[in-house]
C-alpha cells in the first residue's frame, strides 16, 4: 500500500507553490511602478517647464524654474534666491551662465554662488534623476538587486528595491519604497556607507502631473542617523 501525503501537508505544499508563483522580481515591481508614474511612456521625450520651491530652516526660499527638452538635449535652470537670479543653459555644445541677466560677474560671486558649468551639469543630473524616478532606474549603469524586500517604514509596509551603480555612475546605495497596492513610489533613501547609517531619506507626498507623468508634489528630506529635518521641495506646473 502506497503511503499518502497527509491532506493538510498537501494543502501547505500547494499554498507554498502558489506563493512562489506570486512572488515578483525586482524588474517586475519596477515595471509596475513605471506604469503607475509614466503610463504613456512620456519621460524619454519630455519637453516641459516646471518650478521647484525649496524651503530650508534658517535660509531664504529658493525657487528653481526647470526647462527640459530631451529631444534637443537642452536643459535650462533659473534659480532665484534672495536678491539674486542665476541662469544655466546646458547643451551638448557646453553651457551659458548669467547672474541677474549678465554674463559678466565677479570671481567672488562666481565662487560664492557656484556659477560654473560643473555646477550646472550637476544640477541638471540632480533634477532629471530625482524627478525622473522611477523611470531612471532603467538607465545604463544601474544595478538593480533582483530580490524584492518588504520593509515597514513610518508604520507602513512597502515593497523595496535596492539599487547600486557602476563606479563611473555613482557610489551611493539607494532604496526605493513602493506602495504594494498601487506601486506608487512614496519614499527613497540613500547611504554613502550603510554600516555608518549616514545619508538621507526622502518622504514623498502628493502628486503633480507633468506632461502625463506623476511626479511627487513634495519631497521632505531627513538625515538617516538622527531624523533631522533638512528641507522640503514643492513642485508646481507652469
UniProtKB/TrEMBL annotation:
InterPro entries: DUF6503
Superkingdom of origin organism: Bacteria
Keyword line: Signal
Signal sequence region: 1-21
The protein's name: GLPGLI family protein
Naturally occurring in which organism (per UniProt): Flagellimonas zhangzhouensis
Amino acid at each position: 500500500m502506497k503511503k499518502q501525503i497527509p491532506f493538510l501537508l498537501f494543502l501547505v505544499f500547494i499554498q507554498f507553490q502558489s506563493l512562489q508563483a506570486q512572488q515578483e522580481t525586482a524588474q517586475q515591481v519596477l515595471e509596475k511602478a513605471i506604469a503607475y508614474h509614466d503610463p504613456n511612456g512620456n519621460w524619454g521625450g519630455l519637453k516641459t517647464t516646471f518650478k521647484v520651491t525649496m524651503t530650508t530652516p534658517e535660509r531664504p526660499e529658493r525657487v528653481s524654474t526647470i526647462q527640459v527638452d530631451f529631444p534637443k538635449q537642452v536643459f535650462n535652470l533659473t534659480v532665484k534666491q534672495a536678491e539674486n537670479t542665476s541662469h544655466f543653459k546646458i547643451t551638448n555644445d557646453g553651457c551659458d551662465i548669467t547672474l541677474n541677466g549678465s554674463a559678466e560677474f565677479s570671481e567672488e560671486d562666481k565662487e560664492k554662488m557656484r556659477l560654473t558649468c560643473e555646477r550646472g551639469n550637476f544640477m541638471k543630473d540632480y533634477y532629471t534623476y530625482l524627478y525622473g524616478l522611477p523611470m531612471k532606474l532603467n538607465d545604463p549603469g544601474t544595478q538593480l538587486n533582483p530580490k524584492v524586500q518588504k520593509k515597514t517604514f513610518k508604520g507602513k509596509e512597502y515593497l523595496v528595491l535596492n539599487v547600486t551603480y557602476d563606479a563611473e555612475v555613482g557610489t551611493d546605495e539607494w532604496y526605493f519604497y513602493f506602495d504594494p497596492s498601487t506601486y506608487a513610489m512614496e519614499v527613497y533613501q540613500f547611504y554613502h556607507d550603510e554600516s555608518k547609517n549616514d545619508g538621507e531619506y526622502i518622504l514623498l507626498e502628493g502628486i503633480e502631473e507633468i506632461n502625463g507623468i506623476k511626479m511627487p508634489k513634495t519631497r521632505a528630506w531627513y538625515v538617516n542617523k538622527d531624523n533631522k529635518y533638512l528641507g522640503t521641495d514643492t513642485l508646481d506646473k507652469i
